[in-house]
Amino acid sequence: MLDPHPDDPHSLREGAEAPPPGVALMAGVRWLLLLGTLAAASFSWWSYANAEPVAAQHAPRYRCPMHPQITSHEPGECPICHMALEPIPEDDVETVYRCPMHPQIQQAQPGACPICGMDLEPVAAEAAAVSPDMPAGTAAITLGLDRLQAIGARIVVAAEREFAGELRSAALTEFSEDGAARVHVRAAGFIERIAVAETGVRVRKGQVLAEYYSPEIYQAQAELLAAHSWSGPVVGAARQRLELLGLSSAAVDRILKSGKADRTTPVVAPASGVVVARTAVLGAYVRPEEPLYELREDHALYLVAELPAAQASSIRTGTKGHVRFTSRPQLDRDVAVDLVYPSVAADSRSVRVRMPLDNDDRALVAGMPAVVTFALPSETGVAVPRDAIVDAGSQPYVFVDAGGGRLVPRQVVLGARDAEFVRVREGVTAGERVVAGATFLVDAESRLRAALVPAGTTDGAAAPPHAQHSTSAAHGSQPAPENHSQPSQHGTGNHSQSAPAQPSPAAPSQHAADPHAKHSAAATHSSDPHANHSAAAKRSAEHAHHSAAKQPADAHANHSAANHSAESHSQHAGHAP
Prior knowledge:
Elements: H1 23-49, H2 54-57, E1 62-63, E2 71-72, E3 86-87, E4 95-98, E5 106-107, E6 121-124, E7 141-142, H3 145-151, E8 154-157, E9 159-175, E10 181-183, E11 189-194, E12 202-203, E13 208-213, H4 215-227, H5 233-244, H6 249-258, E14 265-268, E15 273-278, E16 285-286, E17 293-296, E18 300-308, E19 320-325, E20 333-336, E21 339-344, E22 350-358, E23 369-385, E24 397-403, E25 406-411, E26 413-417, E27 421-426, E28 433-436, H7 439-452, H8 507-513, H9 517-526, H10 530-540, H11 544-550, H12 555-574
Antiparallel strand pairs: 1-2, 1-3, 4-5, 4-6, 7-25, 8-28, 9-18, 9-23, 10-17, 11-13, 11-16, 12-15, 13-14, 15-17, 18-22, 19-20, 19-23, 21-22, 23-27, 24-25, 26-27
Helix pairs in contact: 1-12, 4-5, 10-11, 10-12
Domain CusB-like beta-barrel: 303-375
Domain Heavy metal binding: 62-87, 96-123
Domain CusB-like three alpha-helical bundle: 216-262
């Protein structure tokens, strides 16, 4: 039915409405943007999969012909002789010899292991740079003799040496525990006079230290005087009470003779000694439980030393020693241990030992610092200089010269030491060469080398170092795994599955000649994410099975398949209403 009023703008028209202008153009722009985004994402993944590893980018590619230890990953000149650096041949692999049972034993020439006697096996220097037996965070390095001399290091030979048995420790003098005394009152009262008002004063036994007024003692004196005119046991009981309150028999007789009670009672020293503490204050109220003075005898002192718990087992009662007083050398003397304390200090992990000192002339005072030396049985062992030990806190180690300038870190167990040398109980044998002097610089170089060693070289495999940095090789030289799957990166939940590739007849010879083939084949299966996308797209295409079996290594083939799938989807979407 036709519209009777075709020119009326308010009339409604029947049938399909014409699309707005520009819809087709915007649909084309939309598909162009989608295809451009897909192409950019594919190129980014392809670049990431085929990028050279960081370790390979910084791997040494150039070296000085006169100083092989000078290497660089880019052309330049040697900082020592200023010669131009030459490219390192890819087949030039440094080889060291290592014990299969003790990987820490490495050297530049063939030989036998000094521990188990097995023949050393050749391995690549890059593979032996890091070993589980080396200290954590370190690696073997190669330094020339001129470079060692430039940093102040030297090479010394570990040799047998006799260590004199000697143990030194710091010590302090202390008061003897035998002459300790504390002064108390036996009745509560008030201090009315102080006779000894300073600490450090030497007093004698029976000397008056203070006087105090006690109502209880004053009342007991009055009762004694009242009962004095009486006969019988009353007088004896009153007298005994005063003596129990601290008065002497002479003081009681003096009170009975005078017939008058004393207002104050004297506080006397119970023993001779030095006043080391005083709490008595004029006018203070004192009780029997409060000490007024503390006295210590100084005619005999103790010398107390703290020894490390690991070395204190060799010290016993009667062990002879020699003490040297740092402030007064003329008082040096021989001593003997009379007590080893049966406990270890929790804060210092040390054991205290005690030695008595005679001090009749009062030349020594408590708190004097001293150094005590004990003579122990001598021992013989492998010795290295003290500056050859690198002690990072967890386990000490040394750098052993394996020959050819190769320095290998090796953990050691230390023993006795003297002013210049330290005994190595385990880790180094006599005749081996170690680095001494400026070892902190060698250790810094080793830790920097360990940080740059690729992770694949720490498994101990004897493969050339260049085999792990290759980025191009034939894909057919290595058969692919039978079941190799990886989740899709687009979140669809699909998995790609590749069939084993058929090796070509020339594959064995190519694998033997080119060490990079192994890494390239592995990278094709695990590092290229486009293989997963292409397999998923090909399953929806007509030739899915043939493409999955062929498994091409070229990433552009995968992009073309993905583009073909995208075009088919776009055509299907174009037919939709």
